[in-house]
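Handout, section B. The chain below has 223 residues.
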Amino acid sequence: MMWIRRVDLRMERGGNVMLVLAAIVLILRRVESIRFDLETGHSKCIAEDIRINSMTVGKYQVVNNNEGLPLPDAHKITIRVTSAYGNNYHYAENIAWGHFAFQAADDGDYMACFYAAETKPSSFMTVDFDWKSGVAASDWTRVAKKGSLLAMELELKNMYDTVQFIQDEIYYLREREKEMQLLNISTNSKMAWLSFLSLLVSLSVSGLQLWHLKSFFQKKKLI
């Protein structure tokens, strides 16, 4: 009975791990574009946390809400994509649509800022923005068309890249955990020294007060 329970527990744990991995794969595959309203004379920025050496692609377009009519000339935007260190990766101005693609050289939050030139009276425009990075940025449909891959090979290739991405994320989280542990140890050590110093100062002040009181009472010949 104990052996059967252990087997059941192992199967249950294995099933939980598979469910977690499947959920992560589904989350990684589900990438949707976002839409937002941009007022003329104002800017709006969107941040994306990107790992180093990860491929990232983005597409943006001003949405024409009046189908059948040309897009107004004032509905043009300026976009700038920068890294956390201020390095420019993409810049375009006075355009209605465009795209960018680059490989991240640093870890951190990358910022895509959209700006619409000021008009009188002010107006609003809708921007459709699709930003993908990591596994989501790999377009295996084009690879399949170029290399004539079978459907099974395409799926396996996509799954391999997804697992590789998950493994890299796990290693990255472990490194971050080590850094946080070292920071915690350093903080505790500093707090211990600060507490010891505070105690030493308190004892010194108490000793000086006692010495002063003793000297005062001796001068007054009270003791």
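Note. The helical segments are 2-29, 140-147, 151-219. Compare this with the example in section A.
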